[in-house]
Amino acid sequence: MKLLEVAGLNVFYGDLQALFEIGVSVEAGQTVALIGANGAGKTTFLKSVAGLIASKRGSITFDGQQVGGLPAEQIAQLGMALVPEGRLLFQNMTIEENLIMGGYTGRTGYWTLPKVYELFPTIANRGREMPFVLSGGEQQMVAIGRALMANPRLLLADEISQGLAPVVVDQIYKSFPAIRAEGTSIIIVEQEVKRAAAASDYTYCLLKGRVTLEGRSKALSFDALSHAYFGT
Amino acid sequence: MVWVDLFINGICLGGLYGVLGVGLALVVGVMRFVNISHGEFIVMAAFVGVFASAQLVGVNPLWLLIPVAALFFFVGYVVQAVLFNCVVTAPDLFGPILLTFGFSIVLQNAMFELFGTDVRSLTAGGLSRLSISLGSVSIGVLPLITLALAIAFFVALQLAISRTAFGRAIRATADNRDVARLMGVKPTRVFNITMGFAMAMAAVAGMLLAMRSTFTPFSGLANLLVAFEVIVIGGFGSFWGALLGGFLLGLAQLIGLHFDPDAGIFYVHVAFFAVVLFRPQGLMGIKLP
Q: A30-55+68-230: which CATH number, 3.30.565.10, 3.40.50.300, 3.30.930.10, 2.40.50.140?
């Protein structure tokens, strides 16, 4: 069953068109990778799907329901959670308040405060601290935990390895199987092609606002990928 | 002894100024939006208080604080929902200023048309003459009640914002509107309720102010000015700073009046100027690098 089906999506920033006729679909339980260079439109795509960008045309179906015209707060209620690029934790709140804030929709399920701490033991016992004292990797864990607190059906993870040491990125990627095991599908946006391919079932490559390549992650050849990535 | 007297009365007046400012500070903090018509709402609440207490003879006006505050919560909610939300999300800085400035003129003239320019005040019955004697110092009961209410407001607001789910939603929205939306928070609803609280506090401050001094339809600007000075002195976004700022201004006013009875609120502005000169980040604000 398709959890997310995006068809013919065009997105605009004023007179500028950022995305052209994008078609992306995510099966329930799948992890889908979205790769592409800077400015390819990956973040714009995630923001449009999550409802943060209103000026768009095309069809976005989530869980059998048209959500293209809904605002972000209503889409969140339906079970879509976005881990924003640059983490964007609430700086005036403690770690624990950040996590609790993630559960504001009141959606119940597997993910609770103790379960998030279990997934990321590094941030357990640090609930009373403020975000700025944490390392980048720990902040990313809080950002992912905050999204999980909404018990989402679909998790959108934007550039979660940005600016982090490879060891830390490994640690974060290791949490994905546990997240999927609880029935959450994932879209990861990455600049690092190999890591994205290894962590996902299906890959889309974006270039200048268009899908230039798609296919099962295992089946994509390196040549085809680099061709689609750089447009050479 | 006169100093103790001045100090206590200054603190009591200052508490009131703190409430005047904190409503405005809340709105600025959450919406990054300055409501220039804040002062007119304070005056409107005073008018409502005057007419309600004229209808309800024998009822102590202090009891009217509760229904009038509830009424102004509703008024604030509706004004925000119908009018202010149109400009809060606009990227243009002038939208909010023009709208609320225009609205303040409309309100001012509407009050002038309805009530004329008579100088009015709200009589607190026998309460305004009651006082407690401590040795040779006498403290008015009404100023004491005012101070107690001000402190109660600050504590309640602080608890609501730091401990409740809605308080977290308010802080999240203030920090980053879009990220808060991703958690399911509807910003316009947060704004409506925040404006409701701000107006309820403005109403309480307006009525208490009318009990201790006089007002006309044109008193709004003076109130807005004091409210601004309170939050600038306190340091933007600091609740307890607003209370401290209120105390300082209240003390400055009464000590100034003691030595210079014709000064009005001149020394309030002098105190404000001194703080801005020597501590531009405010009493409890964080110093910017």
A: 3.40.50.300
